[in-house]
Amino acid sequence: MTDTAAERPASPQGARRSDATRAAILTAARERFAADGYERATIRAIARDARIDPSMVMRYYGNKEGLFAAATSVDLRLPDFSGVPREEAGRVLVAHFLTLWEGGDELTALLRVGITNPAGAERMQDVFAAQILPVARQVRGDAAEAPERAALCASQLLGLALTRYVLRFPPSVALTREEITDWLAPTLQRYLTAARA
Question: Does pTM surpass 0.85?
Fold first, then answer.
């Protein structure tokens, strides 16, 4: 009886190599999508950045759409706002997003692609609906106004990200985290908790 590589279970070493290859592909894809956007990023360039053959990218992710979906699978890891004093919600939200934006390329890639590509825009909308909207509901305790309040918060956070991490406006880049928080937190706080005029 012959024993082919396809029939044998993956060894722990092979599984580790596979995991490392996937991680290298996703890292390269995030960087390439963030730098070039969806349209200009190519499987060949991503494979070159990951130092692997392009066929490996196709093997793991099928096509560019599949790779983009995997590379921009975003968990914002938002804190549980039930434990945050209501008057601190804006400050906590700004600080959390700054940490996310500065901690990797996923959100930058998603923002860059979301501006120019329908699939990217749809993914951004999904993130908004699934992760940011519940924060507005939790902080305000008013489901009726939560979509508008969450959308206004998102407009500020995404506007900052666009000018600081994508377009890299010098005054925006020069701001410290503390300065950004001091400027932006009161606006988000108002969007989340102030009575509607």
Answer: no
